[in-house]
Write a structure and sequence with these properties.
The protein is mainly alpha-helical. It contains 1 helix and no strands. This is Glucarate dehydratase.
Length: about 25
């Protein structure tokens, strides 16, 4: 469960963060 939760949370966090960074740039 921990291994599955890690990638899922990371993907969700990376996607929104990258989108915000692109908008700011």
């Amino acid at each position: 469960m921990t291994t599955q939760s890690s990638p899922v949370i990371t993907d969700m966090k990376v996607i929104p963060v990258a989108g915000q960074d692109s908008m700011l740039l």
